Amino acid sequence: MATNRDRIARNFVKRYGQDRFDRLIELLRSGESGQAIADEFSVSRERVRQWKNTFGTVLTLYQVHPDVEALLTR
Residue 58: what pLDDT? Predict the structure, then answer.
């Protein structure tokens, strides 16, 4: 049984093609802005946000600056 995510991905490929799906994933992975993606695909930023949430997960990493890290290891 196909998941909602799978169904949406298949519908995207059916409508835009595999190459465009690959391009979308590439843009999302690179952190391209929602507006830039929306412009490229001629859709709204809201649609891009929905795709982003459907096709993956946004991870945010907080990395301590090396100067501060040095203070922690003293």
Answer: 87
User: Residue ranges of the domains in the chain?
Assistant: 4-72
CA distances from 36 to 16, 18, 25, 73, 74 (A): 17, 20, 13, 42, 45
String of DSSP letters for 7-44: HHHHHHHHHH-HHHHHHHHHHHHHT--HHHHHHHHT--
pLDDT digits (tens, 9 = 90+) for 31-44: 999 999 999 999 99
What global pTM score does this model have? 0.78
Tell me the Ramachandran region of residue 47: left when phi exceeds 0, alpha when psi lies from -120 to 50, beta otherwise.
alpha
Q: How far is CA 50 from the centre of its chain?
A: 10
